[in-house]
Amino acid sequence: MEYLLYAGLVFAVLIGSIGAMVATTKDTAGGYGTVGDGLLALVVLGFAVLTIGTSVF
Q1: How far is the C-alpha of 18 from the C-alpha of 43, rounded, in Å?
Q2: Residue 33 burial by CB count (10 A; 0-12/13-18/19+): exposed, middle or buried?
Q3: Which residue of 29, 33, 46, 50 is 20 to 30 Å from 15, comparing CA positions?
Q4: DSSP helix/strand/coil, 41
Q5: Residue 23 · residue 37 · CB < 8 Å
Q6: CA-angle at 47, arms to 5 and 50, nearest 5°
């Protein structure tokens, strides 16, 4: 059970970090990142899900 709690905490921190990275990339007028930043965020999140998921289960 602790593993699931730890994995949830890691995902929350990862999503917050990626969100901050994308939001602070001021390549567009609104202050949000480019499409490339969004794709990079999805790739990183997918890799994290696979890595953490296989180690927990």
Answers
A1: 11
A2: buried
A3: 29
A4: helix
A5: no
A6: 55
Q: CA-CA distance, 12 to 14, in Å (whole number)?
A: 5
pTM given for the model = 0.47
- With CA atoms as reference, report the closest residue to 56 among 12, 11, 16: 11
Residue from 6, 10, 35, 5 nearest 22 by CA = 35
Domain coverage including residue 52: 2-56
Q: Which residues contact 35 (CB under 8 A, 6 or more apart)?
A: none
Total number of domains in the chain: 1
- Render pLDDT for 6-56 as a digit per residue (tens, 0 to 9): 878 888 887 877 777 766 666 555 555 567 777 777 787 888 778 877 776
